[in-house]
Amino acid sequence: MPVLEVQNVTKQYKNGRGVENISFSIEQGEIFGLLGPNGAGKTTLMKCIVALCRPDQGDILINGYHVREQFEQAMQSVGTLISGVEAFDFLTAYENLHLVSRLYPSLEKGRIDEVLQWVGMEAHKHEKVKSFSTGMRQRLYLAAALLSSPTLVILDEPTNGLDIEGKLDFQELISRLAKEEGVTFILSTHLIDEVERLCNRIAILSKGKIIGEVAKSQLEEGQTFESFYMSKIRKGKEVNQDAELTK
Ligand SMILES: Nc1ncnc2c1ncn2[C@@H]1O[C@H](COP(=O)(O)OP(=O)(O)OP(=O)(O)O)[C@@H](O)[C@H]1O
Q1: CB proximity list for 12: less than 8 A, separation 6 or greater
Q2: pLDDT tens, 95-132?
Q3: Nearest C-alpha to atom 2 of ligand 1 is from which residue?
Q4: Using CA atoms, how far apart are residues 22 and 45, in angstroms rounded to an integer?
Q5: Where do the ABC transporter domain residues begin and end (predicted)?
Q6: Which fold has domain 4-77+151-245?
Q7: Ligand 1 mean position to 186 CA, how many Å?
């Protein structure tokens, strides 16, 4: 059974933007990259997956549970880092994670320290979040996403604001969790080197639609995720230009 199934999902905002008829599924242990230009619909789709946004049509299943009808069961094994979801500034890193941990009564003692160590924030755990840099906040959000030992982790531009070392540490952590613990990841990012390094499959969103999907194993000789991405984006532009000309 796939960890995540997105079936014909459409979400249209009042201004007509959003995502249209999106379908894909992800198997356990995959690192799935969601790529696309600014405004393509990546965050919207991720928000739909974790029910921060209600699709107009379509179904989303996590480990076989319907996100809409079986929300609690579906979300039990999900960790998320989605733009726009903030920590409490007036609490420390540890206190913020402690607050999140109350959602998961069966967490082991010491788990907060463990995830803080993973993301390199142990030394700052008793500092208030209001004094944190963007990168430190991002590390804290990642720690929160991993706190409950989720089997599916949804990361929206997770290395935004991280320094070089932070990025590399993060990439190592994701690879390790996927390989050793079988954790499944969906990752949206604009950093193509991150995609090449981490992802085993990608989907390309453009103007709310999927215009390409490929696994690393399906790439032709000499082809990279970057060249696949650029070929799809260029093709999309040509199609749009042709449509304009025939209007
Ligand atoms: N709450 C909203 N109300 C109206 N339109 C919205 C809303 N949120 C997003 N949009 C629009 O929907 C489209 C998709 O936005 P979304 O944030 O999902 O894109 P994205 O691929 O995550 O972009 P980026 O790479 O810039 O983060 C954009 O055109 C955006 O302007």
Answers
A1: 18, 20, 56
A2: 999 998 888 888 888 999 999 998 889 999 999 999 99
A3: 13
A4: 9
A5: 4-232
A6: Rossmann fold (3.40.50)
A7: 18
